[in-house]
Amino acid sequence: NAGVMQNPRHLVRRRGQEARLRCSPMKGHSHVYWYRQLPEEGLKFMVYLQKENIIDESGMPKERFSAEFPKEGPSILRIQQVVRGDSAAYFCASSPPGTWAYGYTFGSGTRLTVV
Amino acid sequence: GENVEQHPSTLSVQEGDSAVIKCTYSDSASNYFPWYKQELGKGPQLIIDIRSNVGEKKDQRIAVTLNKTAKHFSLHITETQPEDSAVYFCAASGANSKLTFGKGITLSVRP
Fold first, then answer.
1. Structure confidence at residue A1 (pLDDT)
2. Measured between beta carbons, which residues in chain A are less than 8 angstroms from residue B34?
3. What is the pLDDT of residue A99?
4. Looking at the predicted structure, is the pLDDT value of residue A103 above 90?
5. Does A55 sit within 8 Å of B99, measured CB to CB?
6. What is the full DSSP assignment across A42-74?
7. Most A CBs within 10 Å: which of B51, B53, B97, B103, as the mutation test of the A interface?
8. Which of B95, B29, B25 is CA-nearest to residue A56?
């Protein structure tokens, strides 16, 4: 029973390029959450998705960032025109239906470096 | 919104001693308080959690206590071992699925 799978583990992008981060939730989990961790900081909530629906995107920057969780396939966090300040670790978590925050399982993260 | 403060930011203990990490939260509506352990290069791993209808919970060498009146909760690790060395995060959640995290504490267990 594989855990939450994130890829790539490491991603290097030049300023102005696009970054696409993928997250496959645990089997049976239909809720996906994205968090961002800056160096020596705690994790900050970005977005909460269910299949084909964005439930809460209150933590997403208004520009350049978008997220989706299609009916088929992984959840994608997309960052357009990356800037140095986007360098961080991005973690995805998933949970079964109806468990709210109780059933969170985190992936190992994608470490984005913008050069 | 919720604000979670975590103190201290670093903690060093001798192997076999106990470690206590404290967190405070601001939103009285928060009702779920998990603790996560993060090792270098890995994602956070849930080690113990507590809900607001319980004052204390224990799992082997790890325990968590919650004081709702004072809005603080603490992680207690007894008989610390070198493999307990990691970054520990407290978090709080209310009637939604968002977790608000503290900034983390680096625990070092000296052999």
1. 55
2. 101, 104
3. 64
4. no
5. no
6. -EEEEEEEETTEEEE-TTS-SSSEEEE--SSS-
7. B97
8. B95
